[in-house]
Design brief:
The protein is mainly beta. The protein has one domain (about 1-50, about 60-355). The protein contains six helices and 15 strands. It has helices spanning about 1-25, 195, 260-265, 270-275, 285-290, 295-300; strands at about 30-45, 60-70, 75-90, 100-120, 125-135, 140-145, 150-155, 160-170, 175-190, 225-245, 245-260, 300-310, 315-325, 340-350, 355. It has a twelve-stranded antiparallel barrel with strand order 1-2-3-4-5-8-9-10-11-12-13-14. It has a two-stranded antiparallel sheet with strand order 6-7. It is globular. The chain starts with a helix and ends with a strand. Residues about 1-15 and about 25-30 have low confidence and may be disordered.
């Protein structure tokens, strides 16, 4: 009940702000829209044939879209960002008659942000932010190559999806901003029963009797697809055009700490029997028990860091580098540090930039 009230309160605040903004427009100076839409296509190709240094032939095609739609008013700023990406890579990993027979997804992102901010004192202000992160298609964990390749689904559309809503204090400069919130709701969605059956719950807690004593699934199980967390949230952003001639830099860091999670983690001596946490490969309960208080808190804090560099050769051609690193204990990957997720890419892209200022 509490979480429903909190969500409704945040939605009401956003609605009231929008209505109030419209009323102010009639009495004050009209606001101004500044919009930028940047669709891009990146194509990479490598071909090796009887090459002494060896290598795998590969073709990568990725489409991206970045849109920034900002409404500036004397009393407030309404900023909306659409960040989309989807791509595939075809690799020649095994001997055979078919070239590039192994296809794997190389990128998949849906990241939508809407923020209303009010200036309070000098560079300080208040803001309400809503952010939704998910992906377009299914994601797989692969083993083997070529004809021996096997795959296991680990994610999908809205499995998971993260909706973060925050009331924040914001410090904003020309090229960077920092938001601090001690009242943040983070809702996790996993709308795929098969993934939950495979223990890919992404922190959406199932009933205690979801599995029987022998580890098998309970035939009478009922699924939970949503988990609401209330916590503190820090977001820092830096965007600088022409840090060097024709070179742009974008950096983003997000930290979220769930106030409810320590109870789920159960950090006592009997945590292996009382905790909801699942060990990843090569990890032991003794290691977790040895963590100090501060390490525990850092361990339970979700981290999302993104870095982008773009070098513009011309108005439609650029070289780019991207790095995205995440730490999330609700995701169990492979290896001892299976909670780390790392994505890195570099390439050449053709893009179009549409700017349409409106009043």
């Amino acid at each position: 009940m509490t979480k429903k009230v909190l969500i409704l309160a945040m939605m009401s605040l956003m609605t009231i702000a929008a209505v109030n903004a419209q009323d102010q427009e009639g009495a004050k100076k009209e606001g101004e829209w500044a919009t930028t839409s940047t669709p891009a296509l990146k194509i990479g190709e490598f071909m090796f044939n009887n090459w002494s240094s060896s290598g795998n032939s590969q073709i990568d095609v990725t489409g991206t879209f970045f849109g920034n739609y900002k409404f500036t008013h004397p009393k407030y700023v309404w900023d909306n960002i659409v960040d989309l990406a989807y791509g595939y890579a075809w690799q020649d990993l095994a001997e055979g008659d078919t070239l590039f027979e192994t296809r794997r997804k190389s990128n998949d992102k849906i990241d939508l942000t809407s923020a209303i901010s009010w200036k309070a004192y000098k560079d300080w202000g208040a803001s309400f932010t809503a952010n939704l992160k998910t992906q377009f298609g299914a994601g797989y964990e692969y083993s083997g190559i070529g004809a021996n390749q096997t795959q296991k689904q680990v994610s999908g559309f809205f499995a998971p999806a993260y909706l973060t809503t925050a009331l924040s204090f914001e410090h904003k400069k020309a090229n960077w901003s920092v938001s601090l919130s001690f009242l943040t709701g983070k809702t996790t969605f996993v709308c795929n029963d098969e993934l939950i059956d495979s223990n890919y719950t992404y922190g959406v807690l199932q009933e205690d009797d979801f599995r029987l004593a022998d580890g098998t699934l309970n035939p009478a199980r009922t699924y939970k697809h949503v988990y609401f967390a209330l916590g503190s949230y820090v977001k820092a952003m830096y965007l600088k055009k022409d840090i060097l001639p024709n070179l742009d830099l974008y950096a983003r860091l997000e930290l979220f700490y769930d106030y409810k999670k320590p109870k789920n983690m159960s950090w006592g001596d009997d945590m292996e029997t009382t905790s909801k946490y699942s060990l990843v490969e090569e990890e032991t309960w003794d290691e977790l028990k040895g963590y100090g208080w501060m390490k525990k808190r850092a361990f339970e804090t979700d981290l999302d860091f993104e870095l982008k560099l773009d070098y513009r050769f011309s108005s439609f051609l650029s070289a780019n580098f991207a790095l995205n690193t995440k730490w999330d204990t609700d995701f169990n990957g492979m290896g001892k540090w299976g909670h780390w997720q790392i994505y890195q890419m570099a390439g050449i892209q053709v893009f179009f930039n549409w700017k349409t200022p409106k009043k």
